[in-house]
Amino acid sequence: MEQLGAATGTLTLYDQDTRVVDSTAFSGGPNSPVHSNPIPNGNYTMRLDIRGVLDSSAGLKPDLTPKPFYGVQDIKNFTEEFDTKFNNTWEWGNVRIALNSASDDPEARGQYLHGKERPGDYTHGCISERSEKLLNYLHSLPASTGAVPLQVQ
Amino acid sequence: MMAIHAIFMLFALLPQQLGSPKAPPRIFQSSPLHWTAPPATLHMNFLKASAQLRFFYEDGRFVSLGAELEKRKGAVNAIILLTEGFAMRFGTWQKQGTGFSSHSIYGYLPVKVNPEPGPVDESYASRVDLFTSSRLLAKEAREGKLVLVPAAHTTNLEDVRRSIEADICSVVQLSPSSDSAWSAFCAQQAKANPSKP
């Protein structure tokens, strides 16, 4: 992990002052093949009231990258024409949650909390939680929960 | 309503500075861009657009980048968001008749595709020299239905270029049979910055 330079840390979810879930995560990787910085410190918002699924190429752009999403998105693998298999969980895991930010820092924008199947603990700046423990907990909460703030420090 | 919040504590290493190339490339981007707003309930003052960018280097190297651009509503300047996920191809370009062509392979995709996408050959119609033309003349550059114009009003192009070049050199390092123009560039970079990845 240290070899790739990813920032590692603990994701902790609180309900009022009660600790609900703890999980480990990583972000960035300046010494990794993608030479990326970790997500900047600051405040982000996860919107549990915005739900969606990436389950077909309609969710991908022509260059095969997933379209931006602003809430909680289930990530599925699928097979399309000419038997082309799209393994989206390889990089994103089974769930991704947008980390919406009002910051002007480019590295704070377009970030997600997501799982990962690919070996190598590094990201392009997103926070990745391999166990998906916290991701699954947030996913199980009702959409009426609305906005959940995430503080990166 | 539940008052839930999450904290992610980071223990980061300082990023390393990567070397810079000998000459900046000419960079073009797709036009027009279709700007879309996030859901209104987010109350965010930003617009996003998917863009195709093409980097033409004087030494024949070539990069294709599919990425998301973002700008504030009403603003002219935008930034490239590599954090949203991007598609990157690298290879070479050359003059061909009155236009030019490129040959590239995928260096990064945020989705694993099987079978893996093969090399991409593209041709561009342009009567002008890429490196001496004015902005207006460069508007004639075309790739199929894709119209490319010089990338202006994108404020983090230099950072993105450095980041992409470093990504490509990582790929080249892992795959010795990769493109020779990039191999030469990456070897030169490694020689200039022996302690850098």
How would you describe this protein?
The complex is a heterodimer of chains A (153) and B (197). By secondary structure, chain A is mainly beta. Helices cover 8% and strands 37% of the residues of chain A. Chain B contains three helices and eleven strands. With 197 residues, chain B is α+β, with helices and mostly antiparallel strands. The model of chain B is unreliable at 12-21 (pLDDT under 50). The interface between A and B is large, with 71 and 57 residues.
Keywords:
heterodimer, A: 153 residues, mainly beta, 7-stranded mixed beta sheet, B: alpha+beta, 9-stranded antiparallel beta sheet, 11 strands, 18% helix
List the helices and strands and how they pair.
The complex is a heterodimer of chains A (153) and B (197).
Chain A: E1 7-15, E2 18-27, E3 42-47, E4 51-54, E5 72-75, E6 78-80, E7 84-87, H1 89-92, E8 95-99, E9 111-114, E10 127-128, H2 133-140, E11 147-152
Parallel strand pairs in A: 4-5, 9-10
Antiparallel strand pairs in A: 1-2, 2-10, 3-11, 5-8, 6-7, 8-9
Chain B: E1 4-11, E2 26-31, E3 46-56, E4 61-72, E5 79-81, E6 87-96, E7 99-108, E8 112-114, E9 120-124, H1 135-138, E10 142-143, E11 146-150, H2 157-174, H3 180-192
Antiparallel strand pairs in B: 2-3, 2-11, 3-4, 4-5, 4-6, 6-7, 7-9, 10-11
Helix pairs in contact in B: 2-3
* Main sheet specs of chain A: 7 strands, mixed
Count of DSSP-assigned helices of chain A: 2
Question: What characterizes the major β-sheet of chain B?
Answer: 9 strands, antiparallel
Distance between the termini of chain A: 19 Å
Q: Determine the structural class of chain B based on helices, strands and strand pairing.
A: alpha+beta
**What is the average per-residue confidence, as pLDDT of chain A, rounded to a whole number?**
92
**Global outline of chain B:** globular
C-alpha Rg of chain B (nearest Å): 19 Å
